[in-house]
Design brief:
- The complex is a heterodimer.
- Chain A is built from 48 helices and 54 strands.
- Chain A is of the alpha/beta class.
- In chain A, the strands form 13 sheets. Chain A has a 10-stranded mixed beta sheet, with helices on both faces. An 8-stranded parallel beta sheet of chain A has the order 32-31-41-40-38-37-34-33. A 7-stranded antiparallel beta sheet of chain A has the order 7-2-8-1-13-12-14.
- In chain A, α43 links the parallel β43 and β44.
- Chain A is globular and about 90 Å long.
- The relative contact order of chain A is 0.08.
- By secondary structure, chain B is an alpha/beta fold.
- Chain B has 19 helices and 16 strands.
- Classes of the chains: A alpha/beta, B alpha/beta.
- Chains A and B meet through α26 of A and α4, α6 and α19 of B.
Amino acid sequence: MKDREKLEKFGLYDSRFEHDSCGVGFACNIKGVKSNDIILKGLTVLKRLEHRGATGADPKTGDGAGILIQVPHEFCQKVCAENKIELPRAGAYGTGLVFLPQDEKERNFCKNVFFKVIITEGGALLGWRAVPVDNSGIGKSAKATEPVIEQIFIGRQSPVAGRRSTASGQDNLDFERRLYVIRRQVEKAIRASRLKQKSFFYITNLSSRTLSYKGLLMPNQLGDFFLDLKERSLQSAICLVHSRYSTNTFPTWDLAQPFRFLAHNGEINTLRGNINWMQARESLLKSELFKGDLKKILPVIVPGGSDSATIDNVFELLTLSGRSLEHVMLMLIPGAWEENTFLDEKIKDFYKYHNCFMEPWDGPAAIAFTDGTKIGASLDRNGLRPARYIVTKKDLVVMASEVGVLDIPDSDILISGRLEPGKIFFIDTQQGRIIEDKEIKEKVSSQKPYGKWLKGNITELRDGSQLKSLPAGRQARVSPKRGHLMNDLRTVPMLKAFDYTREDLKFILKPMVENAQEPVGSMGNDTPHAVLSQRPQLLYNYFKQLFAQVTNPAIDPIREELVMSLSTYIGKGKNILEETPLHCHKLLVKQPILSNAELEKVRRIKKNGFKTKTISLLFRVKEKDSFKKALERICKEVSSAIKKGYTFIILSDRGVDEEHAALPALLATAGVHHHLVRSSERTQLGIIVESAEPREVHHFALLFGYGADCINPYLAYEAINRLIQEKEISLDLECALHNYIKALDKGILKILSKMGISTLQSYRAAQIFEAVGLSVDVIDTYFTGTVSRIGGATLKTIAEETLLRHQQAFSAQSLQQDYLATGGLYQWKKDGEFHLWNPESIAALQDATRNNDAKKYAEFTQLINDQSKQPATLRSLLRFQAVKPVPIEEVEPIEEIVKRFATGAMSFGSISRSTHETIALAMNRLGGRSNTGEGGEDPLRFTPLPNGDSVRSAIKQVASGRFGVTTNYLVNADELQIKIAQGAKPGEGGQLPGHKVSAIIARTRYTTPGVTLISPPPHHDIYSIEDLAQLIFDLKNVNPRARISVKLVSEIGVGTVAAGVAKGHADMILISAGDGGTGASPLSSIKHAGLPWELGLSETHQTLVLNDLRSRVRLQTDGQMRTGRDVAIAALLGAEEFGFCTAVLIVLGCVMLRHCHLNNCSVGVATQDDILEKRFRGSPEYLMNYFRFVAEELRQIMSNLGVRRIEEMIGRTDLLEVNSAILPWKAKEIDFSRILYKPNVPENISTHCTIKQDHGIDKVLDLELIKLAQAALKEAKPVKINAEIKNTDRTTGAMLSGKVCSIFGEEGLKEDTIYCKFKGVAGQSFGAWLAQGVTFELEGLTNDYVGKGISGGKIIIYPDKNARYKPEDNIIVGNTTFYGAISGEAYIRGVSGERFCIRNSGLNAVVEGVGDHGCEYMTGGRVVILGKTGRNFAAGMSGGIAYVYDVAGNFKKKCNMDMVALEKLTLEDMETIKNLLYRHHKYTESPIAEKILQNLQQEARKFIKVMPLEYKRILGLKDMENKLEVAEVSDG
Amino acid sequence: MGDVKGFLRHKRALAEYRPVCERVKDYCEVCILPKEKHSEEQASRCMDCGTPFCHWGCPIGNYIPEWNDFVFRKDWKEAFTLLDATNNLPEITGRVCPAPCEYACVLGINDDPVTVRENELAIIEYAFKHKLIKPRPPKKRTGKKVAVIGSGPAGLSCAAWLNQAGHKVTVFEKDEKLGGILRFGIPDFKLDKWILDRRIRIWQKEGIEFKSRINAGVDIKAKKLIKDYDAIVVACGSRAPRDLGIAGRDLKGIHFAMDYLIQSNKRLSGQQFAEFELIDAKDKRVVVIGGGDTGADCVGVACRQGASCIVQIEIMPKPAECRTKDYPWPKYPLLLKTSTSHEEGAERRWSILTKKFIGEGGQVKKLSCIRVEFARDSEGCPTMKEIPGTEFEIEADLVILALGFLYPEKKGLIEALKLELDSRGNVKTGANLMTSQKGIFSCGDMHRGQSLIVWAIYEGRAAASHVDKYLAE
């Protein structure tokens, strides 16, 4: 068995969670003129994208590269002649490269299969040709798996008789279909065969139109590997290229792109759901074109493919069955149409119609696609991948992730553009022109009368007044099935039967109803996993939400709401290969949490053939096995309902009483869903859940995630009603329910957005969860395809838990109460759930560390380490193997061990200044590391104190908000940590409300006091793995001394992500547990998102070791780390460093008030309140005592384990075993073997970090600049530098700026002291962190991330003076420009892409047009835009001012008005604009600026001032203050 | 939590006591019930901690933050529901509990703790005043019969709880009135006895049968008890007082505190005593030996009886006035407590060992004492040492021995039921509080040894739930 398979079978690695993200591009001649030149150009593009790809441990093995070209007939003729193959005319034969087994026998077997299939399909096997390759340049691992590559030629006509023989375009497609049918059959036959080397077999493509060359190669190897590519006779008008960067730890030849139709840069987040839905649809597939052939190709989706391969499979089917390329593209990856006011109704109808039967394939994607004649590229609705294009006067089009990948004379450029979100860039080489997005959409939406069809078929379930029609819960009490009336007396037992606690009411429902928001809490999760808890747990608690990290970005569901949708179309599915009016015969539910009235409407619906059946989820308590039988009964009833023509079923648990209990709604829903997927009937029926169970957001997300279409949470409504009647809530019922549903909506959108998913339709059944503690049987039967790595509770256990709950409510035992149980999940309670941090453990730890009392510390560790009575963590179930000990004196000393300790990222802001500095001081004295957290650090702390102590944090965090991330901050670090996710709320952003932004916080964050600070969910410069590599590169350039770490959160697939991060040259990877965290977060995220580190760390270590990447990178882990035993287990599972957070705060006085989010910490730890901060009593000594205790405890364990140094114990899982004696009742079946799996690797492969990463900063342009700027750096004398620049010159300016700052500090140099003039196309991150005194002038174009974090520098960009195009209409700079800018100036002569000046703190910038989301999250600075803006301008903008020159007069519609007002200019504004435009003109010679300046009074009217409301208020207050001060002075 | 900043807005303020000059003239309660508004304000100081140490410190796990919040929001009814959920006698603990909860209060770390005990009292008195407390007889009867022997806090809580579970409960009390130590051990000025009667009346209406003046095991034979009842709970307290076996102990005028207090309470409830039985402090020089709560009660009683002077002595050194390292937060600390009785006038002295009593004509006249000091031995255990040359005498006409209790009385019930005892002389039980005899349970001081009322309530409730489980089997 190969390593990968072994790891997958016995370890934690799961290949389904591999990601890739890549460089994609094409070169094409618009007129369809074939040439070899296009192919060479394509290869050049590929090479110039190399930095976007990655290599594994073996530096010569890439993740894959390839090209797709038109079938080169001339070339084929030539080679066929050489090989004595008789080739018919162009188009009459199909060809393709086939990867074959190395073993000759097996190879012949494969060829034989081909032969047979071709014959049966009536084609002719014309011959095989060995494809000449030169593998001398490729890597070791690529060589090891290198297949034999041959090219096959298949004739259209069978030699015996011509089956179909005309030659029109349609027939061309007919031939393609036959080739497709042949390919699928061969693929299936080989897959089913017993060949040993069948994994070698792969058909790249089989077509009469296109041909691809690809393999497990690096971009620059491709041209040398395939000797064909050196042939001048190889010609094409189209060359689609792709370079892969995979987190994939085991890259393979077959996953290289392009595929048959497309090449993809990005990620499909909803893949699992899409695959399930496709499977569900297969039984309905019918096609006139395919006739009986269709079943030969099933399944449509080839198992085991990547997300890109999967979408290619579907794309292929939909295209070959008759839809046009562009039609299919718009159908699979629709733009955000629902809220788009600029979109034509007709186009909306097109989208809406297709939405009825195809859920979006959602995720960041730049897809380039071609059929050999037409070629196009499309971007997802969020525009999260870059795609730039250049059109030249010579009919050449180059499209790629970057500009500058091909050297094109500037005077030739006709258009410099970018792909926009949801839009298509399309070329038809037959027509010889570029077809505009608008024309394409107009055309496809006119194909059928979609609008008319929709009108006649879609029924909308209207909300509007439905809440009014719900009379005070009365309706809620009618039990439709059993006719019971639920009176108040019955509410309590009902609530109990469904495990409602007082906490559910107080901490969940009440805040949701009162604030229409999800409730917030803090301090992580220290309760047992559901499977370990002694209490019966709702099934929901066994699932953890997954989230996007690194490989694709989370979305901001608040500020970027316009891309999101909850709309649901339910009703019978149809054959997706056809389009009929009945395809949209659906019930449209815009908001899928149904009120009781809405549910009744659905229940009674009779319209249009809709019919609803209610199926009961109840089972008899006293009957044996009735739980399981009920599940079976329900599936049967559902199937028979389909046969009887029902369109909707309601799964209902109404009617619970003494004798009847309810099946867990989640189990029933998922069970029914999978039952129907298996029988390919799922699309025949809408599933509506009427259940008492769901109450919190996580419950709803799970129900949707496992197939529910709509949900009616009737008992939650009832509970709210009760709260109102008891005057706990002072709102009327209508308003209360409205708020509750609104809170749910927002919460669900947030959970979707965490995964980067925009629509509920795509999220539905996508199963984006990992189960912890459910047995394989339960998963396979009811939650098929869900990850559950340690096994656990069986169906019987789940049944028992259900019965226990029921008993609590209805048992004959009459010690019964009319109040609900405590809960104790969110607060520790005596009679509630167990918490590891409880009064005893907290008190013991504080006592031990304050008095440096080792005995007390031993008491503390006993409380934590011995969880035999109530295990809470996975590690508590492990114990150390008994081995021969070593004397403790031989174990490395405490002083060495504490250096491996770090404290968690807690920002100054979340914790008080005293706490923050105490931690830093203690860690510096110990030689460990403290972490700034997000939010900057006061520069005063960078200087050591007179006594030699230092309060400077060694680790400087770089988070998505980039608050206070100045050049100076970065250079004053030993470690720069990129926070991708945090345990408490992975995948989410944050918000520091204005009232908490005090003067000192504002100063360290470089913002205005009182102005709300929003941290976006993603880093806007990390949408994919190659972006992360870029940020690592950026940071390394600014501060080459600092190591770069990346913080991830444990979840399935984190190992593969970590492999990608290791390939991206991170020096250290931190795997945080999902249960850690101190900061304020939504409760559902604290409890239900992310996994424990035991899983994540172990998976990461295993994956890295097997790929020999472990030696390059250190691993750290944190999350609920408390004792030396915890540390020992972490080391044995693979960590070499250890992080502590909550324990640190407790040592310093925290007593787990869990009030951090209220700024009300009574012990002064987590507060900014002056009075409370004075109550802080912590001291660095306490913390030092603590860490020494931990180290000493660890030493003792090491001595017992017979290891002397920590290095010796890393990854030694053989020293651990399961302590099966203490497994609690639900966890008897738990299986730790995957966690404890130890990959068997040769001795020369290191299992801990031994070598340094090669960051490649030894050849950057900055080294040259620094040399030339010596005069400035040494004597602050002005220097002028001229230099050429190209797209591979990345992060220019950062290293220079780092130097400036480390010499001159934050103040830097005088303006223009180092003046660099560049010419050419700059690579990514041009001018990043440009320091005060450095000016960059660029004549040419740039890519993404210009001026990120600019800290006082000046950037001037204008196109080449020879360029003939109009800069104000063309893209000059890329996306995400000036992200996190601190201060400085920028003048851009031309248009920028998406997200201009995002999170700008204080930069003044002028630009001549921007894309979507301009000035998003801006908190300061002035921005002048002399042209068009995209949509969603000023979203989340809380400070600064933007001035938009709105000539078209439609700006208002594009602006997100949530936080800003639009105003006229004041005199002061005019002055600002005048000054900025004056300089803009001076530096760039912009004619627009000139024009406006000439007539400023007139032109000023066309300016709109975008003013954040909060900022205005604050400025107003300041004005008042100033005036008062003046008044006082004058009085005096 | 209603008011997150409540603790910054308001300082801890205790309800008032009646003025000393007034209160020493009668035996009425010294404390004045807090006003609702006062309690609401004080309750707002509660921070509703994520880890409520008060709730942890309270043996019965009162839902303190939850009901504080309800009080703050004027939702007294809900507050009562939750208070009632964990405590059968909040009107008692609200008056006399030493409130370990308050010592564990998080605010106590760097501020004054929340007035938990008084808030409890306010809630329960509100509930009585507004008739929120009504008899709630169980809906169903199980048909099982349980005898509870002893009507102190443990027995009563146990009975109430068992009754709620539907069992038929009979409470036996050997005294003429119910309540055990609650009635006779605590002076009226701290706990007026109508308060107890008020509660017992409710329980009677709920169906508990109370039989006083019956010495179970003596008046009813053990065999009959065992035959008549499906389960028996013995909760007779720990009444054997610790004695001081020194010279002169048999002089007249030396009494156990409990004898003194019980008699005082009985006299107040109208019982007459013969002259020779009377223990009265009027115009006497009173010495109370023992510095605990019982001693303080004796001081208060002596004061009201008109003692000419009162001295309270304690062998241990004077406790600290605030927490020391030995008692870090949130532990219940040993601190100097000044009770209302002390305020009323008594001299308190520490580190004094009584060597002998000296009398005249069989009547005690003096105590011969010496000062002592404590050191720690190598094990860390405190050892006492007399300080030579510090001998002195205290004049006394009445000496009260308030030295605590040793174990339950062994005669009578324990013998009759043949209950095994533990090494300390208390009734031995398993984890389920069942004694060595099947079906016989024990709780409270009788099992636990002398302790607080809340612990008795805790044990009573725990016993009830074990009995309930036992009866269900």
